Each structure stands twice: as structure tokens, then as C-alpha cells.
Amino acid sequence: MSHIVTTVWEGGVQFESDNPSGKTVKIDTDVEGQERQGLSPKAMMLTSLAGCSGLDVVSILEKMKAQPEKFKIVTKGHLTDEHPKYYHTVEVEYHFYGNNLEPAKIDKAVNLSIEKYCGVMEMFRRFATIKTSIHFH
What global pTM score does this model have? Predict the structure, then answer.
């Protein structure tokens, strides 16, 4: 299976990239005096990691009939000092909110994503140390 993405330069440091579903995303970076219109490429990598794992977790929890009231993932990427700068360590914090949380089911769902299902997590493991934590609120 292949994915094809087309990325088109829109001038300056802005690009628009499509995705196999037909949706688009704006890509740019910080330039003094210019308003940001999109995400930076490295931030998109962290977004992809959180999105991939988050989709796994909510799908698994739905099957377990254990969905939280609110769920968010905070992803922190730590860059190397030298060029080319890349994430050497990534922290993924899973935050669950609600009055009737089921920690055992949530732990199982998160760990299944981390260890078995999330392909983006596996890609990150090829170049970075991944640290994960689960928080109940």
C-alpha cells in the first residue's frame, strides 16, 4: 500500500499539502514579520504521532465501552543541537478526564497503541527515544 501526497509551494515559505483523503494542510515556518498560516514540518510530525496513537486509543476504548469525558495528548519533541536538527527524545503524555474513568482499561488501550498498533510511533522509534506517561484527572 502506498500513500501519495502532493505539496505545492504558495510563495514565501508557505506550502499546501494534500493527503489521500483530499483534505489539505498549510505548512510554513517562523519568519520575522510574517503571520503563520500553517504548521511547521517538525510540529506536524508530533501532530501525526499524537493523532495516530489517539485514534488507536479512542477506538480501543470504544470497543471496551470505557470512553473518558475528555482526552488529550501532549507531545514534546526535544531537538538535537546540531544540524540537521531532529527529535532525539519525544515525550507523549496521555491525559484522561472524567468522573468514571477505568484506569485498567485505559492503561491497556494506551499500551496496545504504543506497543502494537501505532505505525507512526514505530517510525519515531527508529530515530528517537520515546517516553510515555498516562495521567488521570
Answer: 0.92
What's the longest Cα–Cα distance across the chain?
50
Q: Are residues 29 and 74 in the same domain?
A: no
Q: Classify each residue of 65-104 as buried b or exposed e, where b means 16 or more C-beta atoms within 10 Å of its C-beta.
A: ebbbeebebebebeeeeeeeeebeebebebebeeeebbee
Digit-coded pLDDT (tens) for 95-137: 999 999 999 999 999 999 999 999 999 999 999 999 999 999 9
What is the 8-class DSSP label of residue 114?
I
The position carrying cell 527529535 is 87
Range(s) of the domain holding residue 96: 41-136
87, 124 Cβ separation under 8 angstroms: yes
Residue 47 has pLDDT above 90, yes or no: yes
Residue 31 has pLDDT above 80, yes or no: no
For 136, phi then psi, to 5°, come to -110, 130
Helix (H, G, I), strand (E, B) or coil at 17: strand
